[in-house]
């Protein structure tokens, strides 16, 4: 099991449930575990029945488990506050407003969110960091950013010396962190990327495309989990048998086309919600995914 585990996939396939179950399982074994969501529409609060935010919070009822929700808006607010706070006693109010307006663009929001994501990979107090990510396109953009920003800072240093969030001199330490993040993401002994999908055409096709894009980014340690598979003991019922026959060719397609292990998780009769249900899912998950 690697220190960093990313769960991603098409919306609605169950990545939040499986990432949460993994985090609960690891924490229950005594490992200090951080569960992070980069999904702006996160429902970790509903899954655990507890409110979370940008600041790391302990999970009630699960020792050793902490959760952090990376919200773009809250990340931007804290980023601006860190930048402006030292200037409040130095510059007049109108100048501060002008600086704040310049920091309100999408570029600053993206880098503020990205900085929070990178910071999660530099927390030595946690033995495992589990990422519950946004639907695949958003996640691929996030994973591209270490390389993109590192290159942008390097190119800007040769030209104007300015980026959309300030001078390159002030970003030297950030570039070092971005370069480290690239090394961590591409090290198969440290990072695993888990695609969660379902046994139907569109999620499987999206997974295969995204897997190839990650391969091109040199993120090659990948696992696929097909979620919501009809359990074997239910396949004699006429309705379930028909559903199973629909799922089977897509499962075979995934096994043939995905370059990595493919595991199957059952369809549960009950909603995956609450600590006890997450423990149940975690027990099943360890049978299909080496945890």
UniProtKB/TrEMBL annotation:
<feature type="domain" description="ArsA/GET3 Anion-transporting ATPase-like">
    <location>
        <begin position="2"/>
        <end position="286"/>
    </location>
</feature>
<dbReference type="InterPro" id="IPR016300">
    <property type="entry name" value="ATPase_ArsA/GET3"/>
</dbReference>
<protein>
    <submittedName>
        <fullName>ArsA family ATPase</fullName>
    </submittedName>
</protein>
<dbReference type="InterPro" id="IPR027417">
    <property type="entry name" value="P-loop_NTPase"/>
</dbReference>
<comment type="similarity">
    <text>Belongs to the arsA ATPase family.</text>
</comment>
<dbReference type="InterPro" id="IPR025723">
    <property type="entry name" value="ArsA/GET3_ATPase-like"/>
</dbReference>
<dbReference type="Pfam" id="PF02374">
    <property type="entry name" value="ArsA_ATPase"/>
</dbReference>
């Amino acid at each position: 099991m690697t220190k960093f585990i990313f769960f991603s996939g098409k919306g609605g396939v169950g990545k939040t449930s499986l990432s949460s179950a993994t985090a609960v399982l690891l924490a229950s074994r005594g490992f200090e575990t951080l569960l992070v969501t980069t999904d702006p529409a996160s429902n970790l609060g509903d899954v655990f029945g507890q409110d979370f935010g940008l600041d790391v919070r302990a999970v009630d009822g699960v020792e050793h488990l902490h959760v952090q929700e990376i919200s773009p808006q809250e990340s931007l607010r804290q980023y601006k506050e860190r930048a402006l706070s030292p200037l409040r006693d130095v510059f007049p109010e109108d100048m501060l407003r002008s600086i704040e307006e310049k920091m309100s663009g999408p570029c600053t929001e993206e880098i503020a969110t990205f900085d929070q994501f990178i910071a999660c990979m530099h927390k030595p107090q946690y033995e495992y960091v589990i990422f519950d990510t946004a639907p695949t396109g958003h996640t691929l953009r996030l994973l591209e950013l270490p390389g993109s920003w590192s290159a942008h800072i390097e190119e800007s240093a040769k030209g104007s010396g300015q980026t959309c969030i300030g001078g390159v001199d002030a970003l030297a330490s950030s570039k070092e962190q971005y370069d480290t993040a690239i090394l961590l993401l591409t090290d198969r002994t440290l990072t695993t990327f888990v695609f969660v999908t379902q046994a139907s055409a569109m999620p499987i096709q999206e997974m295969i495309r995204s897997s190839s894009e990650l391969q091109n980014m040199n993120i090659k340690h990948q696992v696929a989990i097909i979620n919501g598979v009809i359990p074997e003991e239910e396949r004699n019922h006429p309705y379930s048998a028909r559903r199973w026959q629909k799922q089977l060719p897509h499962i075979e397609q995934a096994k043939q086309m995905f370059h990595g292990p493919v595991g199957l998780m059952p369809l549960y009769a009950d909603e995956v919600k609450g600590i006890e249900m997450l423990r149940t899912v975690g027990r099943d998950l360890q049978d299909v995914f080496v945890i």
